[in-house]
Amino acid sequence: HSPRVAPAGSSVKKRRKEKKRALSDDDVADIQHTEDFLIKPESRVPQLDTSQWPLLLKNFDKLNVRTTHYTPLPSGSNPLKREISDYVRSGFINLDKPSNPSSHEVVAWIRRILRVEKTGHSGTLDPKVTGCLIVCIERATRLVKSQQSAGKEYVGIVRLHNAIESEAQLARAIETLTGALFQRPPLIAAVKRQLRVRTIYESKLVEYDPERRLGIFWVSCEAGTYIRTLCVHLGLLLGVGGQMQELRRVRSGILGEMDNMVTLHDVLDAQWQYDNHKDDSYLRRVILPLEKLLTSHKRLVMKDSAVNAICYGAKIMLPGVLRYEDGIELNQEIVVITTKGEAICLAIALMTTAVISTCDHGIVAKIKRVIMERDTYPRKWGLGPKASQKKMMIQKGLLDKHGKPNENTPESWRREYVDYRDASRKEAAAGHQAAPEVDRAAKVSIASALMLLLYTSVSPMICTHLAPDFWSSDDF
Fold first, then answer.
1. Which of 358, 341, 369, 327 has its CA nearest to residue 136?
2. Which ranges constitute the DSSP H helices of 242-312?
3. What are the residue boundaries of the PUA domain, all occurrences included (predicted)?
C-alpha cells in the first residue's frame, strides 16, 4: 500500500491552530521575566497578547492614543528585569504575619534580614492577629499612605456569652451591622479613644457552632475599623454579649491571601540563597515590584523625554502624554507611567478623558507623590532655542548669572522675552494684597445680614420703623 500523503492545506491549518493555542501560565511567566516589554513608537500589533503583558503595561493597546511619535531612551528598565539591588529597593512583600509579634517588630526583622534602610507597612495588625501585611521596602514606602487608607477584609471568630435561638438570628445581626457605624477604639488600642465613624461595606456569617457558641464571619470594611469593637456590638445586638476570639486579615487593598503571600521564613531563605549561591530567583518571587500595587489605577503614559522633569516636580503637561485611559474623572487619583511600565508618580487628574482627547495644550494632572528616583532618565529640558540663547547670553554677560536682565541686556530681549516665573510671582503678590480687602468685604456683608435678620426676627414693627435709616447708614 502506498503511504497516505496529507494535503498541503491541512499542515497550514495545523500550524495556525498551534499558534492560536493559549500559552500556559508558566510560559507566560517566563516570557514576562525574560522578554523586553516597551510601548514602541509604531502601530504594529505586538506578538504576545497584551492582556498577558506584565503589571502596568497590561492591555496597553486598549488605551487611547494621543500620539505614537517619541524617541525611546535607553534609560530605565522593565520593573521585572531591574538589577536585583534596584528590584529589592523598589519592591514590597505580601507577608503572612505570624501570631504574637507586633507589626512593628515584623517590619524591623525584615529590614534587618534584607539589610535595607527603610521599610513600612500597610496598616497595623494587633499582635495576636495573623494574615495579610503589605511590607514596603525603601522606594515603595512612598506608597504606604495610600495602602493604609485602602479597604480591608477579615475573617474572624466571635464567642457569644450565652446561647441564642438560631443560627439565622446571628446571621441577621451580622448583616444588620453594615454601613456607617459609630466605634470607640478598645481599651488595649494604642490610640486616643475617641468616638469615630467607620464603614462596613459587607459582612456575612460563614459558620456557627451552637455547642461552643462560636461563629465564623467574614467582613469587608474601611481602613481603621476595629473588629474587636464590632464583635462587642454584635453581642449587645443579640442581647447575650460577645467578644472576638480570633482574627485573620484576608485582603489588604487589592492584594489577598492568594496573591503571592509569603512567610518570614521565605524572606530569610531567599536572602540566604542570594548571599550564599548568588541566585536571586527566590528573592524575585518573594519580593514584588511596587507597580503591582497600582494596577487598579487609571494610567497615563508619558514620553521618555518628560520623565525626569516630572521626577523634579514639573507639571504633567498634555504635549508629553502618549496614551491615556478611558474613564478618567476630574480629581481622580491616577498613575503616571513610562513606556517600559515603570511608575513615575501618583497624580490628581485635572482633565477628564474627554477633555484630553479634544485639547492640544494644558495641565493634565498635578503630582501627588513622586515614586521614581530623580535622574533615572536623562535631563531633557533647557535644550530648546530660547534656553540655548539664554545660556549664551549669560556666558557673554548680557544677562546676570540667574538669567535676569542687567545693564548690558539688549532692548529687544527685554521687549520680547517673557519670564513666566516673574509673572506668577506678581500674580501671587497681587492676590495676597487683595485678600485682606476681600476678607473685610465678606465680614461687612455677613455682619449686615445678621443685623437685618435680628431686626426682622425681633419685630416686624421695629423693622418697618428702622428700615429707612438702617439702609441709608454708611455700613450699607
1. 369
2. 264-277, 281-286, 304-311
3. 298-372
In residues, how long is the chain?
476
Determine the CATH number of domain 157-251: 3.30.2350.10
* pLDDT string in tens for the chain (476-residue length): 444 444 445 554 555 555 445 667 666 666 666 666 767 776 665 666 777 787 888 888 888 899 888 888 888 888 988 899 999 999 999 999 999 999 999 999 999 999 999 999 988 889 999 999 999 999 999 988 888 888 899 999 999 999 888 899 999 999 999 999 998 887 767 677 788 899 999 999 999 999 999 999 999 999 888 899 999 999 999 999 999 999 999 999 899 999 899 999 999 999 999 999 999 999 999 999 999 999 999 999 999 999 999 999 999 999 999 999 999 999 999 999 999 999 999 999 999 999 999 988 889 999 999 999 998 999 888 887 888 888 889 998 888 888 888 888 898 888 888 776 665 555 555 655 555 554 555 555 565 655 555 454 444 443 444 444 444 444 44
Distant-in-sequence, close-in-space partners of 202: CB < 8 Å, separation ≥ 6:
178, 219, 220
Q: Which residues pair with 121 in a beta bridge?
A: 135
- The secondary element (H helix, E strand) that includes residue 29 is helix 25-34
CA distances from 217 to 197, 202, 236, 244, 402 (A): 21, 11, 17, 11, 66
**Which superfamily does CATH assign the domain made up of 297-370 to?**
PUA domain (2.30.130.10)
CA distances from 178 to 70, 158, 236 (A): 51, 17, 15
- Cβ neighbors of 164 (< 8 A, separation 6 or more) are 170, 210, 213, 238, 240
| DSSP H stretches of helix in 400-459 | 411-416, 420-458
Q: 3-class SS at 193?
A: coil
Distance CA 35, CA 33 (A): 6
Q: Burial of 178 by CB count in 10 Å (0-12 exposed, 13-18 middle, 19+ buried)?
A: middle
CA dist 476 and 461 (Å) reads 21
Active site residues: 126
DSSP string, 45-82: PPSS-GGGS-GGGTTGGGSEES-------S-S--GGGS
What CATH code would you report for 90-147+258-290?
3.30.2350.10
